[in-house]
Amino acid sequence: MWFHPVATGEAAVTVEAHNKPQDLTLWSTWFDPFSHRPWIALEEKQVPYQFRNTNPFLQEPSFLGVSPRGLVPALTVADGRPVNDSIIICEYIEDAFPSAPSLFPQDPYERSVVRTWVDRVNKGFVPCFFRLMQAQPTTEPEAHEKALQELYDELSAVCANWKGPFFLGEKFSLVDIAIGPWAVRDFIVERYRGFERQKVKGWTEWAEALASRPSIAKTTSEKYVEFNQTFLRNESHSRVAIAARSGRSIL
Ligand SMILES: N[C@@H](CCC(=O)N[C@@H](CS)C(=O)NCC(=O)O)C(=O)O
């Protein structure tokens, strides 16, 4: 069976609680970091939603109808229209539910700062993370060293602008959501790829603050490793893997 509630650990509680039809349906996979972003946004803003556990690799017609590129996450709204891409979905949730705590600051300049760093996380940090997972320390030590250094460089660039405890200070924002899924997954590269949190100033504190944020804590599972084995063996043929391998952004 694709969805094994026991294997989802704590996240299962949230998934189980969100299996009734609602205006918003999140087509999502509990172990996927991109899907994790709008899931956090929905929990943050306390918006009712249905969690529709979806295996994108099955390319089921119902799923392709809402996600023509076959990628999770997707969100369908009350009349069934789809929204695609994890960050665009978060922005939709923000725009559709402006009265709930905002994921953006009020000030237009500060809002542009949030967008700048979300973009940097997407184009820099995220592909580096996947490239490091795919790098093989034993058979390709140079490629592994390079990937590790690139991850340190990208994460350091973001963390250099982190105010603490969250990116903007006390306010939790879309930058925290953009990087949050990796704050609860970086143990994979610690365990298998020699990554050390302490080498990036501020990351340990930021990652801990993110992991303890209720919206992240209750959507996180301790079972991520088994679902990243194909990346760790560099055998994944997903679009993320192919893009990261060739040094392209993940679209
Ligand atoms: N830029 C997209 C990336 C989404 C993405 O790559 N999703 C992966 C998660 S596993 C997927 O659906 N892959 C299916 C495939 O490669 O066919 C986003 O942020 O939503």
TrEMBL record:
<dbReference type="Pfam" id="PF13409">
    <property type="entry name" value="GST_N_2"/>
</dbReference>
<keyword id="KW-0560">Oxidoreductase</keyword>
<dbReference type="Pfam" id="PF13410">
    <property type="entry name" value="GST_C_2"/>
</dbReference>
<dbReference type="GO" id="GO:0004364">
    <property type="term" value="F:glutathione transferase activity"/>
</dbReference>
<dbReference type="InterPro" id="IPR050983">
    <property type="entry name" value="GST_Omega/HSP26"/>
</dbReference>
<dbReference type="InterPro" id="IPR040079">
    <property type="entry name" value="Glutathione_S-Trfase"/>
</dbReference>
<dbReference type="InterPro" id="IPR036282">
    <property type="entry name" value="Glutathione-S-Trfase_C_sf"/>
</dbReference>
<dbReference type="GO" id="GO:0045174">
    <property type="term" value="F:glutathione dehydrogenase (ascorbate) activity"/>
</dbReference>
<dbReference type="GO" id="GO:0005737">
    <property type="term" value="C:cytoplasm"/>
</dbReference>
<dbReference type="InterPro" id="IPR036249">
    <property type="entry name" value="Thioredoxin-like_sf"/>
</dbReference>
<dbReference type="InterPro" id="IPR004045">
    <property type="entry name" value="Glutathione_S-Trfase_N"/>
</dbReference>
<dbReference type="InterPro" id="IPR010987">
    <property type="entry name" value="Glutathione-S-Trfase_C-like"/>
</dbReference>
<feature type="domain" description="GST C-terminal">
    <location>
        <begin position="107"/>
        <end position="232"/>
    </location>
</feature>
<feature type="domain" description="GST N-terminal">
    <location>
        <begin position="22"/>
        <end position="101"/>
    </location>
</feature>
<dbReference type="InterPro" id="IPR005442">
    <property type="entry name" value="GST_omega"/>
</dbReference>
<protein>
    <submittedName>
        <fullName>Glutathione S-transferase</fullName>
    </submittedName>
</protein>
